[in-house]
Fold Heparanase.
Amino acid sequence: MWVGGIVFDIYVISILLVPEVKYRYDYIGNIEVDLGTPLREVSSKFLSVGLEPWLMRNDWEKFNTSSLLLQTLVGGLAPAVLRMGGTSANFLTYDPDASYDRDVYGYQELSNQYFTNLNNYEVKDFSNFTMTGQDLSDLLDFVEVVNMSLLWDVNQFYRDPLGTWDPTNAHLIMQEISKRKQTVLWQLGNEPNIYDHHNDFSITGQQDALDYATFREELHKVFPEVTVVGPDVTNPKVKVNCIADDKEVRSNSVVFLREFLTYGAQDLDVVSWHHYYGGGDVTIDDFLDPALMNNLTNQLEQMVAVRNELGPNLPMWLTETSTFYGGGAPDMSNRYVAGFLWMDKLGLAAQTGIDLVVRESLYHGSYSLLSPDLQPNPDYWMSVIYKQQVGGRVLDLQLNTTTPTVRLYANCLSTSSQHYKKGAIVLYGMNTGEESALVRLGEGIDDTEVLEMLLQPTDGDLQSRSVMLNDVVVELTTQETLPPLDAWPSGVFGGLNIPPRTMGFWLLPEADAQACQY
């Protein structure tokens, strides 16, 4: 017996009330969950989303912030942080009087020294552009309607002749936001440790910290209280099984973060970094690979260790993360198969010390939650279920198995779940293997009802654009509301039956966990 928790012992399971046996379930192990004390706790905004500012240059494309459909879809992910940031943030100029979203400021018209040779930038779309007063107003209205908090990424490429960050344009944005009396979170720049990878401009961790000191000072001239997030470095070098093609570029992120925090931790409220599993040539198998998932554990531990040493009281956020960088893998990062990496990242991040995860992106790119025509991709529906069912208290779960393709996590059940009761818990996870798996629960909850929400691809196609919840295709039927996403009795007592290539949420309303008595 585990002190403060319950050990789920191995014993014979009875499978009841199953009308149809689709799979042969092979026993693969048992789980142990500490039900006595939470491992840690995250906020209801833990799963958050991001957008690139370049949308405003293109007149928002089909991302119409006044659209009822869009407001319904994004509102389904609330509460959350909406980060407006990324590479394009360093190319944005705010002009409250401009009436169109074009580059109305050329090189020679800027009052500051611009340190970027845009001709060398790999992504042709990134060039100077203007955010109008109407753009900013539309964005602030939108985050208010959908119950999200805006995280604004300020252009760091404005420099004076001495190379110091120039806050002049950022100050205009601050003043406009202060008139609205809206709370906005702030960050400066994007992936500063690799500026020289794309531009004729580089910055050290110490210089970045000095920029942040100026940044915070400018914010306090306008706002009595601020939340400053940074420095948004890339993920650290992975030690094994790396499929990325830029190991040498990302190897300096830990060094940069250490230097930044040494000089600038006092000017931060949140430590932030980005994570992608890699890039280059990607296959379906990469999305299913437990070894690739385990790389994240190593990276989380590296970054959390630096934070614990140099900023021990600061929360840590992943402010930009998805499957593979460069917009994702076409026909994979926006399909059913992408959900395995996304769900596993949420579980590992919560368990390992991350306080908030910003999914890149809400809209645009192969890794987006919404398609260009505002149709939800499979990861959107999984994210909505996560928001509805997974509470903030994280439980310590140990899966005793030699089968690496089954991965499980545990939290208290969300108080917003229609099945919520005091002490209820939720297990969530996946089976990426080709065989069905039986995971045994044990003494204390072996007769507790288990409600399941199984996510599977339509027609068994891992590259499906649609997803089934408990054998029913999930789809929108109205612009005003999301469809009901409910659990049903699993018909299994004493265990979890996980079909192959399946993600799931298993609700235990009667678990009576001491850790979840709220």
